[in-house]
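fold-stage: in
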Amino acid sequence: MSTRAPEEVCDAVIAGGGPAGAAAAIALSRHGASVTLVDPGRAPRWKPGESLSPRAGPLLARLGALERVADGSHRPCYGYQSAWGRSTLDETDFLAGPHGPGWHLDRTLFDRTLADAARGAGARVRAGRVSTVRRLPGHWRLALGRETIRARYFIDATGPGARLARLAGGTVTRTDRLVAIAARLPRGAVRRGVPHTSLVESTTHGWWYTAPLPGGHAVVMMMTDADLVAEQAFHAPERWWSALMATTHVRERVVHGAATPRVRLRVARAATSCTTAAAGPGWAAVGDAATSSDPIAARGILTALATGITAADAVHADAAGRPRALETYAERVRMIHSEYLRARTLCYRGEQRWDTPFWARRRAETGS
């Protein structure tokens, strides 16, 4: 006698429980679709990716999550400062913009808020990992361990590897080897009176980023290329801290003394990539699985929300008989990524002070 679980049936399966997947689940559920959101869980206690632009406000409002985010334990972000191309700081004030301040997020709470909003919209949220997808006439069969789900559509929100999109025929193109080496500093390691702004500072081997976090913590990240991490041993806490102490502005936000403090570093891939095409018959990729950008663009979560909503709209339109809806979505992703590449070129062209491998590579890319 077979002990195999009955096959679940729904309109759409979304693989990945981050902001992109949750946004797609909410939007599709509100269109009346039956949705299963598969969240692999095992999230780290903290992860880089905590700043959210004010431009996300209208997207959160559409998802019914704006009030919950605004009333949560997140800290306001009033703007950003940057030392780029010169040693002095430039400042951008969000309060002068139409949407008011952004947020420095408690990412665990933020992701949980969106997952709760997905449940509230009617999506089934379940733990697990989609291991394979198989195309059958008129639907997909997705495997979760020994269980299977049959769905007319699937949405890949698995991250920059775009694992399921590649199984469906998508191709991922990466254009650099950027990585983030990040630490979450405790309250005692953060100077008092740090402004509610993000800070970016370029240095010889790349650039640094820091921002305050809820609870008096702070995130500090070094951005450089993967081979330079190995060559310079930036993954070693002592070497990382020494490079931090060589900055001008970032170091002023942390408490520093004669001894190297104990820090736990996390190395995360931050490379630019794009999936071509980002959608096809019966499927779409969202968030980093569709287009992944250099953190200097500060668009990660914003793009995750936007692509999640737009892909859901395209799936709904396709189901309603508009055959080019998913193709149009894929073309939109391609155009957004191309626009980002042009903006990245202009951004890196603004720093001409160092003739080191990191900056020489980017000058070669930009032709400057």
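fold-stage: in (second)
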Amino acid sequence: MYTGKSYKLLEFIVWTRKSIYLLIIMSIIPTVLYQIFELKWLGISWTVVALLGTATAFIVGFKNTQTYNRTLEAQQTWTSILNTSRSWGIMSRDFLNAPDKTRLLVYRHIAWLTALRYEMRSFRVWETTRRKHNTEYQQYYIIPENESSLDQELSKFLSSAELEYILKTKNKATQIMALQSKTLKELYDAQEIVVLQFVDFQRTIKDFFTQQGRSEQLKDSPYPRQYAIINTLLVHLFCLLLPFGLLKEFDKLNESIGGIMHGNMVWFVIPFSVIISWMYTSLGQVGESTENPYEGNANDVPISKICKLIEIDLKEILGEINLPEIPQPQHNIIL
């Protein structure tokens, strides 16, 4: 998540420079052929290009709205996890008279958060973190899940026996929560909690499973590929045809221009074509970076920070004083 006031223009240009280079080439070629080699037939009707540009703008706007909604849903899901986790810590402390059991439930919950965030950061083939413009930008921030392995992190919160068991399972977060339920059943059978407390715990576990499912659904269900490909094709087609549509329009300006610019107005096709096309390609690239809210891009929902804040809150509830530090943004980016 970007925490600054706004991205700097230079940062944005560097991030999109590959598209800019390609757009410059796409603008120069038809302009040179039209002006130097006098291939006047290359100029096409501006009406055709304008209609295509209008349709493309609607498609790009639709995609960006939907991808923003995905990020918003992810933020809401993890805000719910944050709030419910605090409730879990309070119940674990106040419902039990056994500090060791309280610590077990709290630490195991932190392990659940750890397993879930590592799963959310795992790679999917439709994600964009491995594209060159994104991998280059990753030098400005840290993805915590790439700094240490899952087993190292889980070992801080699980016993060796539980760790060995959990690492063998497919869905580690689910199995950690299953251990929580098993422990609660044992506490209820031993009459260490009453039925209403047991029901409250189980209801909270159900809430955690609901939030985990929402998070997994966003991770494993990408923005529909059929819409994504249409968006990409229309943007590329518009950027390809735009300079051809501008040739005759700028050529007409020579009729009202005198002096050194007379006969040379067509060369303005290059900068104006690049600027307009860059706007479309940049919107598409921004939508791409917002599409998958957990993949590790600079605009992701900061699930690692949220998990660390929950860990601090829960350990304070336990009365611990040796707390982890609150994560700080690097270059205004924090995950």
